[in-house]
From TrEMBL, chains A, B:
Keywords carried by this UniProt record: Activator, Allosteric enzyme, c-di-GMP, DNA-binding, Repressor, Transcription, Transcription regulation, Virulence
Domain Cyclic nucleotide-binding, first and last residues per copy: 27-105
InterPro entries reported in the protein's UniProt record: cNMP-bd_dom, cNMP-bd_dom_sf, Env_Response_Regulators, HTH_CRP, RmlC-like_jellyroll, WH-like_DNA-bd_sf, WH_DNA-bd_sf
UniProt key word DNA-binding: yes
Pfam family, one: HTH_Crp_2
Localisation: Cytoplasm
Organism ancestry: Bacteria, Pseudomonadati, Pseudomonadota, Gammaproteobacteria, Lysobacterales
Official protein name in the record: CRP-like protein Clp
UniProt domain HTH crp-type: residue ranges: 161-234
Organism of origin: Rhodanobacter ginsengisoli
Oligomeric and partner information: Homodimer.
Main localization, broad class: cytoplasm
Length: 254, 254
DNA sequence: CGCCGCCTTGATAACCGTCAATTCTAGTGG
DNA sequence: CCACTAGAATTGACGGTTATCAAGGCGGCG
């Protein structure tokens, strides 16, 4: 709509790591200004992706790691017959492409859920820099480790949780990440489709829809298409662990 | 039984990375002999764990990464009320402890499934070495990435597969890893309990038991307590993707 | 304005989890 | 050597949560 939007966006894209809003979340976290300059040099470009655009596909040869700068991505795998499994949704400050380090080939696909901008870190350059800046290497490891922790959390969800709990955990986790980004964690924008959410949680889309409805009925959420408002954060939190505490099964019908 | 076993084991433990049987699978993969010497220096000790021993617990402060040298481990998380979720089983050559890099605290627990020996890589030392040996840093990344890929595969399993397929994939994956270790991939030794397997796959122990029985009935496996023999590897492989190809539902009853 | 995809809602059934009993194994002691 | 026990694994009957199938509503976009 606004014709200047694109231009502004381009300006933003050209900002260096030092002035990036993600400064603390991204690789620069905890390194000196001097070291930062070196990192800046490794960031090749800051690509812009439109909704549905693919950042990399399974089988692509590995060239770079990517950091989400704005917008959001989903990563997923697809088996031969087209069945897909979503591995994660990625918000600004999060890294994608790590799974390609093992075999020099991407083992998943990354796709933009909305218009997004991405920092590309060509791996050969990145390697050189991290060799010279140990703190940066440490930070890179830290970020990758964060991915692993996040995946472990997801396994707990997929392991043996009822549907309502899965969705509650998903929303609470999203709210957390919003907070880290200094966004309002009570007003979520679900850039992914319902079936993406369902797939990610190991459910079908109908179940997700039903649970949304139920949560709205009990007053925890206000759902409006992609806009979700968390009305009772505490109760949402309690829904995250309910099945293990039978006495909390019923809602506040004291 | 053999009184010399312990002594031999101790000798083995003292062997350096250079002579380790896991040479190609472990960190040393693809680095020079010279660089290897530096790595040897970082490996503090090679600890021995008995069945049930804990390598680290959730919350422990992070000191080292660990490589399984022999035996096998399980890693898992436990929420407040004691519910556990197994994250993975780890065979020789595989690394554990990566999830601690993010926060300097272990976010899971690692426990030996049998008598195992473990290479401990104190992280401060490891950092120094990888700073000096880029190839080693690369290799470390590669191994961590392998973990991530493995976890992605597991998410596909947990996502939406029927019970039989889950177990089939689990066994096939184990067989693969046996092959990489140059063991006979058709004769598996399940060092973990049935309920460990069930938990890992997001099922209950009864279901796992039933599926084992069914697989034995159709002649794919021969199950004897912890010893599993894969009689028809091809058919096992077909069971891994059956639900999506209806025409393969029935076995070769041509 | 009208199509089309996404989401929602409802009815039915299946797979798997729960509960309960039995068998098997390994470890212990008589 | 064998009986005994405790824990693990198996087997069976049943029920519940969620998938499946089917239809209808809503919003976006040409």
């Amino acid at each position: 709509m606004d014709p200047t939007a694109t231009i502004l966006d381009l300006h933003q894209l050209r900002r260096s790591c030092g002035s990036c809003a993600l400064h603390e979340l991204c690789l620069p976290g905890g390194i000196t200004a001097e070291e930062l300059i070196q990192l800046d040099a490794t960031v090749r470009d800051k690509r812009t992706l439109d909704r549905g655009d693919t950042l990399y596909r399974e089988g692509d040869s590995f060239g770079a790691l990517y950091v989400v700068r704005s917008g959001s991505l989903k990563t997923f795998v697809q088996d031969e017959d087209g069945q897909m499994q979503i591995l994660g949704f990625h918000l600004p400050g999060e890294i994608v492409g790590v799974d390609a380090l093992a075999s020099d080939r991407h083992m998943s696909q990354a796709e933009a859920l909305e218009r997004s901008s991405i920092c590309e870190l060509p791996y050969t350059r990145l390697q050189k820099v991290v060799a010279e800046v140990p703190a940066l290497n440490r930070q890179l490891m830290r970020i990758i480790s964060r991915e692993v922790v996040e995946e472990h959390r997801h396994m707990v969800v997929m392991g043996k949780q009822p549907a309502q709990e899965r969705l509650a955990i998903f929303l609470a986790s999203l709210a957390d990440r919003y907070n880290r980004l200094q966004r309002d964690g009570t007003r979520l924008t679900l850039t992914m489709s319902r079936s993406d959410i369902a797939n990610y949680l190991g459910l079908v889309v109908e179940t997700v829809s039903r649970v949304f409805t139920r949560m709205e009925e009990i007053g925890v959420l206000e759902v409006n298409r992609k806009a979700v408002r968390i009305l009772q954060p505490e109760q949402l939190a309690s829904l995250c662990g309910m099945n293990s505490r039978p006495d909390l099964q019923r809602k506040d019908a004291s």
